Structures are given as structure tokens and as C-alpha cells.
Amino acid sequence: MACKSKVKQKYSQGEQSMMRGIICIVCLILLLPTAAAFEDFLEVVVELDSSGNAFISYFPSIDTTERSNITISVPLGSYFKVYDDNDSLSFTSEHNMLTVIPAEKNPAYLFVLEFFTSELTIKQAEYWIANYSSFDGFNNIVFRMKMPEYSKVFEIYPEGTIVYDGDRLAVEWTFTEEPNYLFINYSLLIKNNKLTEEAAPENRGIYLGGLILLLVIILTSLFLLLSYRKKVVNPEVLNGLPKRQIEIIKLLREKGGKMTQNTLMERLSLPKSSLSRNLKALQKKEMITIMNLGNTNLISLKNGDD
Predict the structure, then answer these.
(1) Widest CA span of the chain, in angstroms?
(2) Which of 70, 109, 111, 304 could form a cystine bridge with 64, CB 3.0-4.6 A?
């Protein structure tokens, strides 16, 4: 009896060991697709101020098990800071390229790059243009651009989502393939035209007179603008222009007088060569201006046409 009991106990322990081994193998098999499916990921947060400056936070997640360094482009003349959780990474910079040397081998190594630059935006009259095109080979990207206070957005490319971040507008994109560039056309509205309680009594008359004068100017401008628009809508004004050029002028006027060439091409379903030919013709007639933005052009109606 003692012998049988001993044999039975050994068999039970062996069976348990075998079951543990099977469970471990199954867990490894289940975990393999997860490990293989990991891809580098990038989150970018851009905050714009009213002067066109940009504070950019870069949050990459990178597989460093087979990479000894990561190269990232940073605008020339920008002030930057790069760090990880342990403040143990190192880096070198040359011209506009930053080479980050990870502190550890990790399939999801995280670090932060922060930099401040004024090279992200350009201003044309009362309009601002924010253009971002440095994605450093990442395909999986979440991008968020927080607009200045009192902003009005006219155009976004490619199509994004407008959300509110507190009292400020923000535009968000999600990509699974590296985009060529991001583009936002916006302007800044008057912050506040109310008199402050702290204003001295002797200055309030000046402020009030200024507000009345401003109101008269605005009303007069609106009246003249509406009168001019009625005139522009008259087919006789556009008489002599080809059909395509009339369509371009009307679409620009509907969109506030400014659009990118790529957006015009999509909205009018025109071939690139045909659109370029008609734009050059309108430019020669001094009805539009064409401003190069690198990957596209900004098309604007000349004063008096919008």
C-alpha cells in the first residue's frame, strides 16, 4: 500500500509540472503577436502664441532594442530640451539635426523633446499660416496644434478635428502613414473692445470716442464691401473670363479670399496642369496673388476682388 501511494504521488507531481509547462508555452505564443505588432509611435503637441512663436513637445515611443540612436530634425536657432524618465540619455546636435542616444534597450523607449521656435509660422497681412512638415519617418502619429487665444481658423490641411482646449481652439490629427505636411490658415480677432474698470475717468471719453469712430468705420466698410460684392456678383464684371477662371474667383470669394492650390484642385476637380495654367492667367490679369509655401501655394484674391 505504501508503495502504491508513493507511485501515485510522483505521477501527480509530474502531471502538474507538465501542465505548468503547457501553460507557459501558450502564454508565450499569445504574447508573441503583441510584441511583433509594436511599432514606433509619435505624439506631437504644438502651442502657438499671438506673436507666431511655437512651443513644441515631442513624445516619441521607439523600439531601441535594435537601434543605437535616433535622429530628429529641430529648426535652426530653436531652443530645445531633451530628457527621459531617468535623465540618463545623451545626445549630440549638428545644424538642424539632433541625435538622441537612448539610455536603455527597450521595445517601447520613451523620451521627451521640447523646443521653442518662431520658424513654424509666417504672416501675410492679417492672416497667419502655420506649416509643419518634420515627422522624422514616423507613421503612427497623433498631432495636436493649440491655437492662440481669439483665433479664427479658415483652412486646415489635411482635414483634421477642431476641438476646444479650455477657451482656446485646437486642431487634432491622427495618422497611420507619415503625412507630407500640415497646414493651418488662421487670423487673430480683437481681444476685447470693452472699457476696463481701472481706466481713469478722464480717459474714458477718449476710449468712447475711439469706439464710436471705430464703429462708424466698420459700418462704412461693411456698406462699401456689400455694395462691391453686389457689383462683383454681376456677371458683367467677370465678362470675358473663361469659365474655369470664373469658378476659381467665385470659390476664392466664398472661402474668404484665400485658399491653397491643393484645396482648389480638390474642390474644382481640375488637373494640376489645368489649374496652374488658369492661376497664372489670373495672376497676369492682377486678380490674384500666388505665394509659395513649399509643398503648395497660397492663392489670394487681390484687394478689391475679395
Answers:
(1) 115
(2) 109
